[in-house]
Amino acid sequence: MSYVSSTIGRVLDDINRSYFLPAIQRPYVWQPEQIVALFDSLLKGYPISSFLFWEIRPERRADWEIYKFIENFRHGDTHNEMAEPDGRDVKLVLDGQQRLTSLLIGLRGTYSVRARYGRRHNPDAWSRQRLYLDLLKDPAVDDEVSDDEDLGITYGLRFFETEPKSDARHHWFKIGRILDCIGDDAFDRLRDEVVDALPDTSTKAQGRIVEKTLDRLYRMVWKDGVIAYYTEKDQSYDRVLDIFIRANDGGTKLSKSDLLLSMITAQWQGVSARQEIYGFVDHLNEGLGVKNRLDKDFVMKSCLVLCDLDQRYKVANFTISNLARIEASWTRIKASLEATLRLVNRFGIDGETLTSLNALLPIAYYLHGVGGGSLDGTTPFEAANARHIHRWLLGSLLNGVFGGSSDRTIGAARAILQEALKDGRDFPHRDLVQGLASRGRAIAFDDNNIEGVLDVGYGKRTCFLALSLLYDTQAWGSTPHHVDHIIPRSLADRKALMAQNLSEPLIQRILDNVNRLGNLELLLARENLEKSNLPFDQWLRTRDGTFLERHLIPRDPALWQVGALPEFVAAREELIRQRLRGLDLDPAGIVPPAPVAMTGSAAGN
């Protein structure tokens, strides 16, 4: 294997002319400080590792989707622009994308960063910056404290939105100007221009630093063969994929979705798989009115599950025949996944509260089997199945049914759904609960797992899921709701409790209980703001007569005082236990026990 060396200047001239990116490559992810570190290493004469290219023969150019390098990067962007290969000598970069893109941005492009707390879609929140070099900074002298010390940065490299002003201590130079020096004469003119622009107060020593740093930059870009690369010319796709995986194994791990996207791109006809899947993931995450957190891997695994293929997320399962099957079903797959997300979003479950993406797969498979639709109507079929899916999903998420290695669980759930859909169209929640329970995956609530739900306290990711089990509604996503402390937290503050002359043991018990599930409820956002830190008995006078029953709150007014918070939580948690035991998730179909009557006087309105 022989390597060839080239200069940065010559390679940059060929980027987006001959050098492109394959669909298999990940998006650009480097931060500005990483770019600075790269240029600092180059100015010091350090090696920056080798590069790996793949030369595509002209007759094979149309077989692959190719993408341009990003020249003007905006932090957080994940998409490269497609390139047309016609009439080009195409070399795809298999290893070195991050470094080459960083060189391109630093010398020719820009890096846009968003202001803290700025909105992504607000143009004014973005700062478009270029890389500058302080020619007066002596890399051999640590003469000032710098944020870059931990990185070992000694050259004066920084990104600026506008050209910084030079003074007696700093002389800023936009390093992209060195690209105009395609020969020694051009560089001599530039060097003379820069030196002549130094202040009259500059010393000869400072002039030598400027000349030395500028000369080092010129040699780094146009003289030194710092780009050492090997070009693979074999046209075997399997060989190149293997090379790519091994070449990238030492850096950011190659995800299966990156590899599979390249395989799909090569097989699908008439559609860009990469753009389709990236665009669809963006749509599910940003285009449904709430924020979801799906990724390419979930969409690709969904393709296997919904097409009745081996659900294991392995490259071997994406054969040519399987890819053709997925392509033929792609429109229906998208509809089923979108219907699934719209349904669970209507349950109030989004990227913040969805603790397992795999728990969505049985729902997506069911909706796929019955022809899609998000069950958002009011027919008996839609209402009943939405309710069953809601409770089944909450049970699955709270009990971690699809946690860890869940391929077998997914396969078992799909087999149950396949059998049920042969004879009906209802979501087989009982069959799923019973079938998965027989495999050690408990969804229903009994004395073995109810206490785990009660231990879900305020601030935990599953808190909303646990609380939503206590109500009959599913439409949490239609109106904003807040998790509310029934006995306000402000009244259970240590200082407030000490002011009531309560004993230290009682204060500690109150503090231990204030954030427990037994002291939490779901309220409309505006109601929660209205309630604020009012004592509960005062707030209750403004509510309707069904409030206590609806929120499973003990009726004894003596328990509504902050001093009785431990007893209040204990009484309410018993009511919650009864609620969970009575949910329609019992695999044996046992009639739930009758609720225990609540004691105490009813609250007045």
Structure description:
- There is one protein chain.
- This protein has 605 residues and is an alpha+beta fold.
- Helix content is 41%, strand content 10%.
- It contains 22 helices and 14 strands.
- It has helices spanning 8-14, 32-44, 97-108, 184-196, 204-222, 237-247, 256-267, 273-286, 296-306, 320-346, 361-369, 380-398, 407-421, 429-437, 450-454, 463-468, 494-499, 504-513, 525-531, 536-540, 547-550, 565-581; strands at 4-6, 19-22, 51-55, 66-67, 72-74, 82-83, 91-95, 110-114, 126-134, 156-160, 172-174, 227-232, 481-485, 520-524.
- Strands 1-12-3-7-2-4-6 form a seven-stranded mixed beta sheet. Strands 5, 8, 9, 10 and 11 form a five-stranded mixed beta sheet that branches.
Task: Give keywords.
605 residues, alpha+beta, seven-stranded mixed β-sheet, five-stranded mixed β-sheet, 22 helices, 41% helix
Short description:
The protein has helices at 8-14, 32-44, 97-108, 184-196, 204-222, 237-247, 256-267, 273-286, 296-306, 320-346, 361-369, 380-398, 407-421, 429-437, 450-454, 463-468, 494-499, 504-513, 525-531, 536-540, 547-550, 565-581, and strands at 4-6, 19-22, 51-55, 66-67, 72-74, 82-83, 91-95, 110-114, 126-134, 156-160, 172-174, 227-232, 481-485, 520-524.
